[in-house]
Amino acid sequence: MARTWTPNELGALDHGLREDDLALRDTTRNFLTERVRPHLPGWYTDGAAPVRELAQEFGRLGVLGMHLTGYGCAGASPTAYGLVCAEIEAADSGLRSLVSVQGSLSMQAIHSFGSEEQKQEWLPQMAAGEAIGCFGLTEPDHGSDPAGMRTRARREGSDWVLDGTKMWISNGSVASVAVVWAQTEDGIRGFVVPTDTPGFSAPEIGGKLSLRASVTSELVLEGVRLPESAVLPGVVGLKGPLSCLTEARFGIIFGAMGAARDSLETAISYADSRVQFDRPIAGFQLTQAKLADLTADYVTGMLLALHLARLKEAGTLAPAQVSLGKLNNVRRALAIARECRSVLGANGISADYSPLRHAANLESVLTYEGTTEMHTLVVGQALTGHAAFR
Predict the structure, then answer these.
(1) What is the pLDDT of residues 129-138, one digit of tens each?
(2) Per the database record, which ranges form the Acyl-CoA dehydrogenase/oxidase C-terminal domain (predicted)?
(3) Has 369 been annotated as catalytic?
(4) Which CATH number among 1.20.140.10, 1.10.3210.10, 1.25.40.10, 3.40.630.30 corresponds to the domain 239-384?
């Protein structure tokens, strides 16, 4: 039989990457293989994963807020962060969501806009996984249009009092701290809210058909009283939360391709072992056509991700380019996972195989942190100069 290549080898995707970035990727891959992958089918079917324990494991691994500098964070390159996101999502999108919400949303907000006291109090324990964070922006009636949020913060003497509801919040029920965005007389402001503050609750959302190995919650704020020191002093307006979302979307560009790669490798392995008509189905032209087309889509998506990482390292990556990456790569990954399921036939609906789990998870990734429609319009505006949001 002729030499076989993995999708990464065929695309020569490691070419030109730094050894230290590859080492971080490989360390993450080894950890997931040994400690996480054997449990994923059970966590998904049971709709429960040991999130607090996983956060501590990821903290010891050094991947929580790894792209940030100082306060216990590694200061890793964008490429390293992207490669790590790909490895984590190759295991499960819910785990990458845990890491992204912790590092690129909650920690990013405090690191970019927080006071020195807020940074010293929260970032080291969040980097270690000892404290989990969540990011309260989306509301029941305001997802793609966060400017319409109804959560309010009003002054009472020297304090702030918050009232409102946030929805679809990853990590909410297990978080020690929530970064909550609210309307004030001065515009939208961010608040660092310890979750044991009276009036704060985070009921978990059940009945999910996607991201079942993660915690998704509602945040309810009823007269939550906070001192002036709880305000993020470094930003007013939507540019604060939107800049954090841009950071998280960058990780998704890589992460989605990790789910695609795992689906593809699973389908290739299965096709080689599944015998029909006295030969492996990998030897049939229709199966090979699927695998060839899917590999071309995967390699193209990874090349885009790596190119955007180089732009980010050069300091020239624009939000519209991040939107292009998320739009392209999540759609490609979802299509790859679905088609890989078809290679597995009836066995593809079993939790023993990953493609359908990845496809179900990617349905959420397609929606959160900017829907396909919103990123399409961002790219459209970049190309034409006309905003079509309203």
Answers:
(1) 999 999 999 9
(2) 238-383
(3) yes
(4) 1.20.140.10
